[in-house]
Amino acid sequence: MSKISIQHFQDLIKNELFWADDVGLSLEQVNNGHAVIRLPYDERSVRPGGTISGPHMMLLADACMFAVVLSMIGDVKLAVTTNLNINFLRKPSQSDLLAEGKIIKLGKRLAVIEVSLFTADENEIVAHVTGTYSIPPQTG
Fold first, then answer.
1. Angle CA(6)–CA(83)–CA(10) in degrees, nearest 5?
2. Looking at residues 96-124, what average pLDDT do you find?
3. pLDDT digits (tens, 9 = 90+) for 7-57
4. How far is it, in rounded angstroms, from Cα 89 to Cα 27?
5. Deepest in the core among 3, 47, 64, 80, taking most CB within 10 A?
6. Which residues have C-beta within 8 Å of that of residue 97, sequence separation ≥ 6?
7. In this structure, are strands 97-106 and 110-119 parallel, antiparallel, or unpaired?
């Protein structure tokens, strides 16, 4: 069972992750160690050449990793990205993007996560992401 709810994460986006709220990110699924987030298509995210920009895809992947980590450790706001590696596999169509993330390893101080980015209209993988989150030590 997830240690955060969809509503709790959406409230976090709205009240504290303004960059995520600005682009309309929405958490669609969350389970212990698994999350799916949607980035709605917006022509402002398209770069020259007609593809969705890399920074928007990285933003989506990082938010998904954050949701995966919080699903396992709860509302620990100082869990932060320490590494993000992205492989762009193909040009995404001009549609919503979905990020599906899962935990690879959760330790006391680090979490390693894998995320696949898909086009919503074709369900075609467009990028593969791995990342590491630092988990702050528990106090008290």
1. 15
2. 96
3. 999 999 999 999 999 999 999 999 999 999 999 999 999 999 888 999 999
4. 23
5. 64
6. 38, 39, 41, 52, 56, 57, 60, 117, 118, 119, 120, 126
7. antiparallel
User: How much of the chain, in percent, has pLDDT values that exceed 90?
Assistant: 91
Spatial CA neighbour of 134 closest among 111, 118, 101: 111
Q: What stretches of the chain show up as alpha helix (H) in DSSP?
A: 6-16, 18-22, 54-73
The pLDDT mean for the chain works out to 95
Cα angle 61-64-67, degrees, rounded to a multiple of 5: 155
Q: Where residue 140 falls among pLDDT bands split at 50, 70, 90?
A: low
* C-alpha torsion 122→125→132→108, nearest 10: 70
Residue 87, Cα to own-chain centre: how many angstroms?
A: 15
∠ at Cα 32 (114, 126), nearest 5°? Answer: 30
Given a cut of 80, whether residue 139 has pLDDT beyond it is: no
